Amino acid sequence: MTSDGSAGGGVTEALPSLCEFRGRNLTETSVEFQELLESISEFLRVDSVNTSQSRRKKESAQDHRASSVSLGLFSCSLIFVAVSLLAFSDIASCLAIFVEYVRAGLQPTDLSYTGK
Length: 116
Fold this sequence. Notes:
This protein folds into 2 domains: 7-48; 67-109. The protein is elongated and about 100 Å long. By secondary structure, it is mostly helical. It has helices at residues 11-14, 31-44, 52-57, 66-104. The longest helix has 39 residues, at 66-104. The chain crosses the membrane at residues 66-88. Keywords: Membrane, Transmembrane, Transmembrane helix. Residues 49-68 are annotated as: Disordered.
């Protein structure tokens, strides 16, 4: 609020004046009344993505305790070892197939070769 009691920042320009409806018999079916309600609700609507509550909900809290850090590092290293073992076994089997193709004197693009 500013010192003169207005909200400032163009708020009064954004909403239609309520004074023009003073003393009139307004019903909920009135077109003018419905337009006023729509403009007020549009003005008061807040984008829920930009609220501080929704931002805090998506952020993780830092935990600097030694036990939580060590457990996190152990979990990451365990996942890394499991993925590495799977990748190395696939690479080893691909190399074995390639060596078999070379020993047979075939090109790796020859798909009709089925093995021994």
